[in-house]
Write a structure and sequence with these properties.
2-enoyl-CoA Hydratase, Chain A, domain 1, alpha/beta, Acetyl_CoA_COase_a_su, 8-stranded mixed beta sheet, 15% strand, 14 helices
Length: 325
């Protein structure tokens, strides 16, 4: 058995463990250390290492997965109001004989492509295009698949002038009441409202080394820790990894990656993602539309925790990073 086959077997073992909610990361770390002979390849990675893997320039993109997973796909363009946004792609594809409407943030593979795709940071017309296609999916009773990979929505002046906040807010409202199954997959970065703009669904999947957070580690370090150099520390405090979010109930399943990240074996990752999408859809298809909406609403309302207590502020987790004025 060669190294690639061995790593695939380990990934399959991790997938079974994740599905059964069994934490075997420490044991897998020992195995991978013995295989590779290098401690830095251990599968128990810290938060910052996962951030760097999620941002790796060779990491497979949304269009890569769609082309690999689907028998055919047709990309659709434009929001019918302003224009088209290359940073947020969408269209119709067939996966395992099942038609889907797909939506996804698209990053580039090189500098030229990244400039064209705006590094996966969508403008308002991107989110309006996504909503147009989602409404079309509902009309034709097609399930929706979203592939999320963005540091956030584009924060520039043009985006503000064209109503980026309104576009994302409208998507949150409308996606929450569509009566077709919605499967959301975080394939790289899931950043802030930019991710949520196509991230409302019935089942949320994360690739193992993807991240999902309300703010980037750099932004958290600058704003909350008051030191932009403490981004690695901020990444750990944000609890933004797939395993953290699974333990909080924010996501539903994790797809393990080969050692070294998804880019180490893109074909294998596309196959595993395809299998997971079809498995989840088969489960969601057993629900009537009204049941689907009820469960989606319950899911959204149960996210997060609110607590009031009399603990002094000095005991707050962030208090040790702030100095009294």
């Amino acid at each position: 058995m060669n190294d690639r086959e061995l790593h695939r077997k380990l990934a399959e073992l991790k997938e079974i463990a994740a599905r059964e909610n069994i934490d075997i990361r420490a044991d897998l770390s020992k195995i991978t250390d013995k295989i590779s002979g290098r401690g830095e390849e251990a599968e128990v990675l810290d938060a910052w290492k996962r951030v760097t893997l999620a941002r790796h320039p060779n990491r497979p993109t949304a269009l890569h997965y769609i082309k690999q997973m689907s028998e055919n796909y047709i990309e659709l363009h434009g929001d019918r109001a302003f224009g088209d946004d290359p940073a947020l792609v969408g269209g119709i594809c067939t996966i395992g004989g099942q038609s889907f409407t797909f939506l996804g943030h698209q990053k580039g593979a090189n500098m030229k492509e990244n400039l064209y795709r705006n590094y996966g940071m969508a403008h308002p017309e991107g989110y309006r295009k996504a909503l147009r296609l989602a409404k079309q999916a509902e009309r034709f009773n097609r399930p929706i698949l979203t592939l999320i990979d963005t540091p956030g929505a584009y924060p520039g002046l043009a985006a503000e002038e064209r109503g980026i906040g309104e576009a994302i807010a409208r998507n949150l409202r409308e996606l929450s009441v569509l009566d077709v199954p919605i499967i959301c997959v975080i394939i790289g970065e899931g950043g802030s409202g930019g991710a949520l703009g196509i991230g409302i669904g019935d089942h949320i999947v994360m690739l193992e080394n993807s991240v999902y957070s309300v703010i980037s580690p750099e932004g958290c370090a600058s704003i909350l820790l008051r030191d932009s150099k403490r981004s690695q520390e901020a990444a750990a405090l944000l609890r933004m990894t797939s395993y953290d979010l699974k333990s909080f109930g924010i996501i539903d399943s994790i797809i393990p990656e080969p050692m070294g990240g998804a880019h180490a074996d893109p074909t294998y990752m596309a196959d595993r993602l395809r299998d997971e999408i079809l498995r989840v859809l088969q489960n969601l298809r057993t629900r009537r539309p009204e049941q689907l909406l009820k469960e989606r609403s319950r899911r959204l309302l149960n996210l997060g925790v609110f607590r009031e207590d009399s603990v002094p502020r000095k005991s707050n987790i962030f208090s040790r990073f702030f100095k009294a004025d």
